[in-house]
Amino acid sequence: MPLKGKKIVLCITGSIAAYKAVYLLRGLMKAGAEVQVLMTEAAKEFVAPLTFSSLSGKPVLSAFFSKESGSWNSHVDLGLWADLFLVAPATASTIGKMANGICDNLVVTTYMSVRCPVMVAPAMDLDMFGHPSMLENLNKLRAFGNLIIEPVSGELASGLSGKGRMEEPDNILKTIEIFFSEKKKS
Ligand SMILES: Cc1cc2nc3c(=O)[nH]c(=O)nc-3n(C[C@H](O)[C@H](O)[C@H](O)COP(=O)(O)O)c2cc1C
């Protein structure tokens, strides 16, 4: 199992490609990783958290705290726990927040707290992906040392065709496995 013992925070944001994160999570679990899923509020409109909690064996984290019990989710602890922080799919909005330190949800707040490598798999329509603000934000993330898993060209959910489709889960998994095996060698 190539990812045995690796602790991965998988963040899912509000893109139609959220369904692909189900396959990605399956792949990570099969490869032996321990996965904690974080979802933005928008992501939960696309795929139910129950799907991810069932597959990961851990409750999905989304809110900073519970109003009922007063319990809270520690972004700092999560940041220290993770061997990899992965955002897949990453929306334009989340990428913009990551690039500019806007910590108004658990995903971005945890991003700002992690000490581990960060990978980001954008997913959006071609015009959003081609917008100058997106290019600038992605360049900022690269400058922070984050790895961008480039989207591919093809048919998009909008019916248009172009670059913006999130990379396929199997290829994201391969990227992660290669990353950890090269890290082991160095
Ligand atoms: C049907 C539908 C599909 C969407 N798909 C995307 C997408 O693929 N990429 C994206 O950046 N935004 C997409 N959006 C817009 C985001 O959901 C919206 O910007 C949201 O605020 C993102 O929040 P988050 O980044 O906190 O998850 C979509 C919206 C709808 C209604």
Descriptive notes:
Helices cover 42% and strands 19% of the residues. It is α/β, with parallel strands linked by helices. The chain has a single domain (7-185), classed as Rossmann fold (3-Layer(aba) Sandwich), CATH 3.40.50.1950. The strands form two sheets. The chain has a five-stranded parallel beta sheet, with helices on both faces. A two-stranded antiparallel sheet has the order 6-7. Helix 1 (18-30) links the parallel strand 1 and strand 2 (34-39). The longest helix is centred in the last third of the chain and has 17 residues, at 169-185. The model has no long low-confidence stretch (mean pLDDT 95). Residues 13-17, 40, 42-43, 91-94, 123-124, 128 line the site of flavin mononucleotide.
Short description, anyone?
This protein has 186 residues and is α/β, with parallel strands linked by helices.
Secondary-structure content class: alpha/beta
Percent range of helical residues = 40-55%
Shape summary: globular
Name of the CATH first level: Alpha Beta
What is the residue-mean pLDDT, rounded to a whole number? Answer: 95
Element order: H for helix, E for strand:
EHEHHEHHEHHEEEH
Radius of gyration: 16 Å
**SS element count, helices:** 8
Look up the CATH topology.
Rossmann fold
CATH superfamily: Flavin prenyltransferase-like
The distinct ligands, each listed once, are: flavin mononucleotide
End-to-end Cα distance? 20 Å
Number of DSSP-assigned strands: 7
Number of domains: 1
The biggest sheet, with number of strands, parallel, antiparallel or mixed sense and barrel status, is:
5 strands, parallel
CATH architecture verdict? 3-Layer(aba) Sandwich
The largest sheet has its strands arranged as 2-1-3-4-5
